Amino acid sequence: MRKSVYNNEKSSVTNVATPHPYDAVYRRSIDDPEAFWREAAEALTWTRPFDRVLYTSKAPLYRWFPGGGFNICYNALDRHVASGRGKQTAIIYDSPVTESMLWISYADLLERVSHFAGALANLGVTKGDRVVIYMPMVPEALVAMLACARIGAVHSVVFGGFASNELATRIDDAAPVVIVSASCGIEGKKILPYKPLLDAAIDMATAKPRHCIILQRSQAEATMVPGRDLTWDEALVGAEPAPCADTLATDPLYILYTSGTTGAPKGVVRDHGGYAVALHWSFANIFNMAPGEVMFTASDVGWVVGHSYIVYAPLLRGSVTVLYEGKAVGTPDAGAFWRVAEQHRVATMFTAPTAFRAIRREDGDGEYIAHFDLENLRALFLAGERCDPPTLLWAQEKLKIPVVDNWWQTETGWPIAGNSLRHGALPIKPGSAARPAPGWDVRVLDADGVPPPVGEIGNLVIKLPMPPGSLATFWQADDRYIKSCLSQFDGYYATSDAGYIDEDGYIFVMTRTDDVINVAAHRLSTGGLEEAVAGHPAVAECAVVGVEDAIKGQVPLCLITLRAGTDRKTHAAIEQDIAQRIRDQIGAIAAPKRVLVVDRLPKTRSGKILRQSIRSLADGTPVRMPATIEDPAVLDEIGALLKAAGFGQA
Ligand code: COA
Ligand code: AMP
Fold it and tell me: Which residue(s) pair with 255 in the sheet?
């Protein structure tokens, strides 16, 4: 029998009963944030008390717990071993793609991390140095992250699905002393050698690492560069276990690059102390997870969800984290998640709606779900993209547990809105990520900074200061952070999401307001894609938009015009070339649904390409004809071409 902590009949509730136990918690976090977070901080171990809870003198940049001595690795590992939890499992590595499984205890993990930290120190990595980690979903990725944290180095994990060009951009911005990587990743049945991509990226980058540490996996052997590269095992030879560095709560823990409007990614910086306090609190309260319980976050360590809820939050809480190297479907089938959930007695799962859409496509009747014993599974969290109501309702109906849509971003580090399960689930309204989580004062503002009437769509903004765990700044780019996120609405962080808040305070996130698209919960910049396309010698102009896709949410569509004199017969070859170019420069995750040569692009009289109109034509939704359009006939031409290519059949 399933544990019923949630009443499914409430899934379409429109009137939300108040007061709810959650209300008082939320109110306190907003009315007296310093008391709220001071109390949350007490659950963790500090080597020195903080001077104050919140530092405001450099507003709009805020810092939490200044002066506090705090190391996140100590709190994630040493603290638990010291309190007798050493023998408990910390990580369950479950890898259907290599047919292997490994249980790593807290004591074992501490030993691995301390030794690898010693290896990094032997290579000259010191406090404040950057280490880029470009790894598949293997335990060594977590070991490398925690080892950096241990010695106060700043890690920057780059998602393994990014190609050399993207990796090179990140290497140049972070300027790492060492890069940690692996010989290959494994995607389903494909073995993807990482080392050639890494070598090409280092060739492209101006900032050269002193050393690379490469985990040689048995599926592919990497060729090493003498003098620069060491294998993982070689790096460990003679390495002494390193103690935790005397880091401050405000010291940088990591840089995580994310897509913005342009091709230059933004390096989100997060600190040791505030991040740990927020994650520990959110894991205990929003996720309602206790020490020793098993969390299965099916994401990737290269994304923020992976940083927060595969690695740091479960370990900070003394829980067990499942590190899953596989897919939702195909490794071997649509029952993979449920096999993991049953086998490891998973209490809570977290993934992206796109994974559920893929599962539902193959197992609409939920036969796999019914086949497994999911007695322990209490809740499913979905984030990374808008959760469409049919997916949420399907998951809820088949699993009979709360399905929590939670809204957040790389910048925020943990859910801005969701359902705080420890305080009793709020009724779920499909399409909404429920109410703001404690600490987040979310508002809707129109373009002039005025709140529109309740229920009307506008810019979703967060009143400053944001709670601990939110970004400190962009790496070495305070100005860029202030300009792109804190200047549009005075006193608020602009999320670049648009949506509305209803009469019950529920947040509905509807769309991005910038040129970011969301492909299978991977955040991509159309500006970045356009830069890659425009570099092709035959391309005169291009427009990349995100069009609807039943599984991935959105996928890129590229329209290009060609330089004068380009042979019409070569159009198909150029289209293929460009699709390949995107795979090579950005990565296969950004592969376009279609590249189409067109005679001209729709523009305003001032020359601005009408991307929204292209998107509407491709999605088959009503096209808003801008008054300033240069030539309305272009839209008919493009519409006809897209129709012939199978688009616009909404
Ligand atoms: N390393 C290298 N390549 C990768 C990769 C990685 N880590 N991840 C994806 N790719 C490649 C895939 O091999 C594929 O290449 P191909 O086109 O040559 O076959 C391409 O990128 C697209 O992969 P993906 O987006 O995963 O699509 P898919 O069709 O293989 O799988 C889903 C579809 C929905 C199952 C899958 O996208 C998914 O599970 N998404 C969830 C993502 C997620 O968890 N995001 C984090 C948010 S919380
Ligand atoms: P990322 O920084 O990659 O996590 O992407 C963050 C973006 O994904 C947000 O700004 C939203 O556009 C989108 N997003 C994430 N979670 C949700 C959600 N629950 N509902 C709607 N959009 C979401």
Answer: 269
Domain shared by 478 and 549, yes or no: no
Same domain, 148 and 178: yes
SS3 175: coil
**pTM for the whole thing?**
0.95
Q: How far is the CA of 106 from the centre of ligand 1 (A)?
A: 30
Best residue among 408, 432, 462, 514 to mutate for probing ligand 2, ranked by most atoms within 8 Å of CB: 408
CA distance 429 to 503: 12
Q: Is residue 4 part of a domain?
A: no
Q: What is the pLDDT of residue 1?
A: 31
Q: What is the pLDDT of residue 11?
A: 33
- Domain containing residue 587: 523-644
| Closest ligand to the CA of 485 | 2
Exposed, middle or buried by CB within 10 Å (0-12, 13-18, 19+), for 590?
buried
Which sign, positive or negative, has the C-alpha torsion 488, 494, 499, 500? negative
Give the per-residue pLDDT at 12. Answer: 33
Which of 446, 467, 501 represents a domain boundary (last residue)?
Answer: 501
Distance 338 CA to ligand 2 centre (A): 25
**Are residue 497 and residue 585 in the same domain, yes or no?**
no
User: Which domain CATH number covers 591?
Assistant: 3.30.300.30
62's CB contacts (< 8 A; 6+ apart) are 54, 55, 56, 464, 465, 466
508 in any annotated domain: no
Nearest ligand (C-alpha, residue 511): 2
pLDDT digits (tens, 9 = 90+) for 107-149: 999 999 999 999 999 999 999 999 999 999 999 999 999 999 9
- Any domain includes 556: yes
Q: What is residue 7's predicted lDDT score, i.e. its pLDDT?
A: 33
**With contact defined as beta carbons under 8 Å apart, do 227 and 243 qualify?**
no
Any ligand 2 atom below 6 A from CB of 369: no
Q: For 324, phi and psi rounded to 5 degrees?
A: -105, 115
CB of 556 closer than 6 angstroms to any ligand 1 atom: no
pLDDT at 264: 84
Residue 407 C-alpha to ligand 2 middle, in angstroms? 6
| Max Cα–Cα distance, the chain, nearest Å | 74
Type of residue numbered 192: L
Ligand nearest to the CA of 387: 2
Residues of the chain with pLDDT under 70: 1-18, 650
Looking at the domain assignment, is residue 356 inside a domain?
Answer: no
Report d(CA 616, CA 609) in Å as an integer. Answer: 14
Q: Does the beta carbon of 386 sit less than 6 angstroms from any atom of ligand 2?
A: yes
Instruction: Determine whether the shortest distance from the Cβ of 300 to ligand 2 is under 6 A.
Output: no
| Residues 405, 383 contacting (CB under 8 angstroms) | yes
Whether 315 and 435 map to the same domain: the answer is: yes
